[in-house]
Amino acid sequence: MPTYSGPVLDNCCGCYSLKTGSIISGIAGMIMGALTLVYIWVTDAKMKTIVIDTLPPDVVKIIVTINLIMTIFISLMLILGVIKRVKFMMLPWVILAIMLAIGLGISVIYTAIVFIVHKEILSGFLFLLFGILSVGVYIYMWLVVYSYYQLLREEAGRGPYQKPHYRR
């Protein structure tokens, strides 16, 4: 018996379509990427990597800049893919976003532990609280986009003249 592998969610936030939620996710990705890009170049933000702590700050800033530019580009591809209903254009965002969610989760836990080890218990707890909340929102938005991606996959498999498949 075949299993149903359609969308995980039926809508976004209970009142928007998956298409609208996916566009909102792409726009949010572009805005967050652009704001972060401006922030790291306008302010004297100190950034470190978790894995390689010996890199000079300017090298870390350049690496982060390249990542942010790619994030903005991939978010733009998501928006265009959603509007044009082209799954292939959405796929880079789907893959990147889940990897970033995992990385963000690890970073949140690591940073909270660093705060706590340095006897900044309240800062560590607040960072962990708001960090986990951010990861949750990020994963939800990923689920919205992934659900729309699955919906497009399902529609492509049915052909243009068949009735839609309804879950029982």
From TrEMBL:
**Keyword match Transmembrane:** yes
Alphabetically ordered keywords of this record: Membrane, Transmembrane, Transmembrane helix
For the keyword Membrane, the answer is yes
Residue ranges annotated as transmembrane are 23-42, 62-83, 90-118, 124-149
Q: Mind telling me what this protein is named? A: Uncharacterized protein
Native organism: Bemisia tabaci (Sweetpotato whitefly)
InterPro entries referenced in this protein's UniProt entry, alphabetically: DUF4728 (IPR031720), MARVEL_domain_protein_3 (IPR053077)
Report the domain of life of the source organism: Eukaryota
